[in-house]
Amino acid sequence: MNISKLYNLFRKSSGICTDTRHVRKNNIFFALQGENFNGNDFAYNALEKGCSYSVIDDPLKQKNKNQILVSNALQTLQELAKYHRSKLNCPVIGITGTNGKTTTKELIFTILNTQFNTIATQGNLNNHIGVPLTILSTPINTEILIIEMGANHKDEINFLCNISQPTHGIITNIGKAHLEGFGSYEDIIKTKSELYQYI
């Protein structure tokens, strides 16, 4: 199924779900995989709990027509978020930095939301899964979207920018964190600066 067809199903749904413990009726479940779990194992259960569709990437788990088989569920989630972002006609503020991202996001949201219909990242859902989920939870009539972006390895901010397509950006600071993933402080500087370079 191509992204435009999946997007049409998404627009008719009640949103995205990645955890069967938090299913809402008419959700679309994405079977994501982690170190200690495989969402494909819960894809049919998601339908039983009220999801309209489940997006899976294991053909052995496909039991009926409401299970949409894709090559990679996470990548499909990210592509769907990018597609939805292209339909949003509002400024998108990207925020990154080693420290202070969440506090800065909350301060900006509190101010802007007094005059504009504003959506912001919930908690610290700022990675390759959280950013797409934030975008996909953004109504089409949103006036300002604030996206927090975290990183623990090279090129991650650039990847998140390609999905969220920020029009404005804030880099709170650049410190020596996650060196095990970046390799050097210089690579941290380069990665955090990818927001600046994108804009």
Question: What would you say this structure looks like, in words?
Answer:
- The protein has nine helices and eight strands.
- Helix 1 crosses helix 3 and helix 3 (73-87) packs across helix 5 (130-136).
- The protein has 199 residues and is α/β, with parallel strands linked by helices.
- The strands form two sheets. It has a four-stranded parallel sheet with strand order 1-2-3-4.
- The mean pLDDT is 93.
List the helices and strands and how they pair.
Elements: H1 3-12, E1 16-17, E2 28-30, H2 43-48, E3 53-56, E4 67-69, H3 73-87, E5 92-96, H4 101-112, E6 118-120, H5 130-136, E7 144-148, H6 156-164, E8 168-171, H7 179-182, H8 185-192, H9 194-198
Parallel strand pairs: 1-2, 2-3, 3-4, 5-7, 5-8, 6-7
Q: Rough shape?
A: globular
Helical fraction equals 25-40%
Strand content of the residues, in percent? 5-15%
Summing up helix and strand content along with how strands pair, one would put the structural category as alpha/beta
Cα radius of gyration in angstroms: 17 Å
Give the termini distance in whole angstroms.
Answer: 32 Å
Largest sheet: 4 strands, parallel
Largest sheet, order of strands side by side?
A: 1-2-3-4
The number of distinct helices, counting runs of at least 4 residues, comes to: 9
Mean pLDDT rating? 93
Taking pLDDT < 50 over at least 5 consecutive residues as the criterion, the unreliable ranges are none
User: What is the count of β-strands?
Assistant: 8
Query: What is the N-to-C succession of helices and strands?
Result: HEEHEEHEHEHEHEHHH
Brief account:
With 199 residues, the protein is of the alpha/beta class.
